[in-house]
Design brief:
By secondary structure, this protein is of the alpha+beta class. It has a single domain (17-159), classed as 60s Ribosomal Protein L30, Chain: A (2-Layer Sandwich), CATH 3.30.1330. It is 21% helix and 32% strand. The protein has three helices and eleven strands, in the order βββββββαβαβββα. The strands form two sheets. Strands 1-2-3-5-10-11 form a six-stranded mixed sheet, with no helix packed on it. It has a five-stranded mixed sheet with strand order 4-7-6-8-9. The longest helix is centred in the middle third of the chain and has 20 residues, at 110-129. It is globular. It starts with 5 loop residues before the first strand and ends in an 11-residue tail after the last helix.
Length: 180
């Protein structure tokens, strides 16, 4: 089996599409697929059929007091930055199809249970701020998720992942901020 993956600018392109890592935001008007693996963090997908735009962000922490290596790893900055790209191109809150995915908690890890819950709540708070009703959500529980988004149709496929590696829970050994 040949590996057709090419790493460019922190993104991994392969036969499944564009893999988004935590702390990144991607949006496009091109035909593509976005993929992500999410544990305690959150993935937010956005699609506007009228504008022909699709986007995704993957955040790990609910607020600016967290020790994130990337500002877009923080929910307010990630989601609002993604929304602004759509609004700058003529999208309205009513035209956006938004899905929230993630917020799983690792059984027995109280810090991650609290962090997962805060990530979910912060995502909903931001959607309320913009008066956006999510068209879908798949949040909480004990399983991570695989996410695949078709940028042409806006359809999202979510797979529960019963077994995540420990570094899928805490990407690149990012510290879990108990005060988050």
């Amino acid at each position: 089996m040949t590996n057709n993956s090419v790493s460019r600018n922190d993104f991994l392109y392969n036969e499944n599409g564009l893999f988004i890592k935590p702390g990144h935001i991607i949006w496009t008007g091109d035909k593509n697929c976005f993929t992500a693996i999410v544990g305690f963090g959150m993935v937010v997908t956005v699609f506007d059929e009228t504008q022909g735009l699709a986007g995704i962000c993957h955040y790990l922490f609910p607020n600016q007091n967290s020790r994130a290596s990337s500002v877009s790893a923080l929910s307010p900055l990630a989601i609002e930055s993604l929304f602004s790209r759509f609004f700058d191109r003529g999208s309205t809150p009513n035209s956006l199809q938004v899905q929230m995915i993630g917020g799983a908690c690792m059984p027995g890890n109280l810090a991650l249970i609290e962090l997962s819950d805060k990530n979910i709540r912060k995502g909903y708070e931001i959607l309320e701020k913009y008066n956006i009703q999510p068209t879908g959500f798949h949040v909480g529980g004990y399983y991570g998720r695989g996410v695949l988004m078709n940028t042409q149709s806006g359809k999202v496929r979510i797979s529960k992942l019963e077994k995540l590696r420990s570094n899928d829970w805490v990407i690149m050994n990012a510290p879990v901020d108990k005060a988050a």
